[in-house]
Amino acid sequence: MPIITLLTDFRDFYPAAMKAVILTIAPQTNIVDITHGIPPQNIKWGAAALSFTAPSFPDNTVHIAVVDPGVGSERRSLAIRATGKKTQYLAGPDNGLLIPAAKTIGSFEVFEIFSRSTEKPSPTFHGRDIFAPVGAKLSLGEDIHEMGVPITDFIELPTKAPAISNNILTGEIIFIDSFGNIITNIPEEIAFKFVNYGETVFLEDRPLPFVRTYTDVNSGKPLLLIGSHGFLEISLNRANARDYFNIDTEDIIQITK
Amino acid sequence: MPIITLLTDFRDFYPAAMKAVILTIAPQTNIVDITHGIPPQNIKWGAAALSFTAPSFPDNTVHIAVVDPGVGSERRSLAIRATGKKTQYLAGPDNGLLIPAAKTIGSFEVFEIFSRSTEKPSPTFHGRDIFAPVGAKLSLGEDIHEMGVPITDFIELPTKAPAISNNILTGEIIFIDSFGNIITNIPEEIAFKFVNYGETVFLEDRPLPFVRTYTDVNSGKPLLLIGSHGFLEISLNRANARDYFNIDTEDIIQITK
Amino acid sequence: MPIITLLTDFRDFYPAAMKAVILTIAPQTNIVDITHGIPPQNIKWGAAALSFTAPSFPDNTVHIAVVDPGVGSERRSLAIRATGKKTQYLAGPDNGLLIPAAKTIGSFEVFEIFSRSTEKPSPTFHGRDIFAPVGAKLSLGEDIHEMGVPITDFIELPTKAPAISNNILTGEIIFIDSFGNIITNIPEEIAFKFVNYGETVFLEDRPLPFVRTYTDVNSGKPLLLIGSHGFLEISLNRANARDYFNIDTEDIIQITK
């Protein structure tokens, strides 16, 4: 049974409208929701959630991701074939949403989808009218080369690469989860060049012990750890780091010694 | 693999309790959630969401819909067979919830379900004890004529039919989605009798350009378009029309030239 | 097709990360979400929701439940085989979460899972790295005796057993649903020793008629009934009992004559 995942910022009946299309084209598909809880039009958070999750799915999974403030404009529609330990497919808008996941999976080819549909897609719902049919066809084994033309000038999100300088570790917040855990783009490898387990660093002058798990500090206390996604995460044990630090998504983060 | 969809105003573990019943009777069913985010007991919004989504599902899909403030009272339980391009089944309370979807699918027959169950249904959870078993049996191909008696006096929601008079287009708000888009019951055909692309009309004295997609106006600006569901929709580009117009679900809407 | 259910307090992409692991090990699994809406780290509510729902699933269903404030600490990981009318499996942390469901199913054996994995589990996400693989293997028919060692000193949640004395019925609130219905741990049998249909009792000096269903009182009025889960429930017809009584989860409840 082929697997198609969905990640959107849609609520209400919109994800189900995509599923109706998928199941009409590919009735035996196992559709898995990655999340529909991305904050409206927050491409960066969507890209992070997709890159944390998509690579763990089985070989030949198709991921349809739609966080798409530019729907109906000139922005292109993409299908991607990514190959690492496994081969996976991605479909979604050309706004940077898919690229971090594709990179995490391995090497990848990007195709601009051309529509050969006789029906005109709704200018407000490409998730249903373009990406769902493309994803369904990919899950049935249709050749991605027949769905579009290869491109190399796809859009990538601007990012602040993590860096260490003058005893400051700088990175970017890429997701804040519903527990309030603040997830950065600082990978394990870089984190360990800056700090070792047992040491304490600082965020906004507040001490952050670097530990292995939440319960290594007292309840309500802040901490720094490598999250389950492999990136540096600022948390509180049994409490909300987002509220505690009053931090929001767009911020650059600076951790000091 | 037969498909059963669920649309309810249930949260928590209640939809899963319905799925347990369905999978016990029909283990190979593919259960798809349309939405469980209908505001509690808002039959009108549930009916709109169901009518927007159900007709797109494959042939022989069974839709179980439960927004049911009258549960346990004398209100009747319904099963419906609707036939247009496809045949679809609906099960739910006799309170108007199912009828707009049935009409959208095509012609339809309505049956009052009679319970032959030896176990008494919970007077507070017909979704689990009546509609889930009926839906599961319909998905297995059981004959709807054996499940109830045909009726014609089923309940329909009162609606304000869309109308144009004296340069005023009047309709009803039938759903407001989580982006804050205000969806009316004014279909494309009637909308185009009132306004053409490029023209500007007014809601509460505020200008509304009639456009094809959100990005046709500047960020934060209001607009009017035909939504992906085929009905007139009042939106803002990248912002929330519900908040902007301070409009709620029960309102009649009047668009002026 | 084997069934695995998930109940967690995870939001965002975390449940999907568990599904990726499950589908990699057991690709033909039907994964059903019981709920991911448990309030963060509220073991008691998670245990109630699981015990209300899990026992209704088909024979050999595997339930993975993770509400786990102690993740990464010394708390043990459990797999349970419960047998009553059906056999069901449970996997989750040793913090009391699984036990009420196991008891509701029937008699049960508890195993402490030992990890033979070569990969080290993330110290913050045992749902993905321990319970998802264990659940997937159980769904494939692997022998639970080979996954761990039997224990009898598993943790149980402290509870206030329901009791009647001096015309006071005392119990505990174990769940408040999203309609605001307050669910107690007082089972039907005990409730009927205290009150009969048609009688009125009191909560905080406010009258509560004991009825069969919500619509037996006027809109906005409080009532007492046996909920669909079989326990005494305090509700309002078409309104929110949680708000009306200003009651929260940790409270003991006392109903007076």
Automatic annotation (TrEMBL), chains A, B, C:
InterPro entries: SAM_HAT_C (IPR046470), SAM_HAT_N (IPR046469), SAM_OH_AdoTrfase (IPR002747), SAM_OH_AdoTrfase_C_sf (IPR023227), SAM_OH_AdoTrfase_N_sf (IPR023228). Residues 4-148 form the S-adenosyl-l-methionine hydroxide adenosyltransferase N-terminal domain. The keyword GTP-binding does not apply. Residues 171-253 form the S-adenosyl-l-methionine hydroxide adenosyltransferase C-terminal domain. SUPFAM superfamilies: Bacterial fluorinating enzyme, C-terminal domain, Bacterial fluorinating enzyme, N-terminal domain. Keywords: S-adenosyl-L-methionine. Pfam families: SAM_HAT_C (PF20257), SAM_HAT_N (PF01887). Belongs to the SAM hydrolase / SAM-dependent halogenase family. This is S-adenosyl-l-methionine hydroxide adenosyltransferase. It comes from Candidatus Ethanoperedens thermophilum. The lineage of its organism: Archaea, Methanobacteriati, Methanobacteriota, Stenosarchaea group, Methanomicrobia.
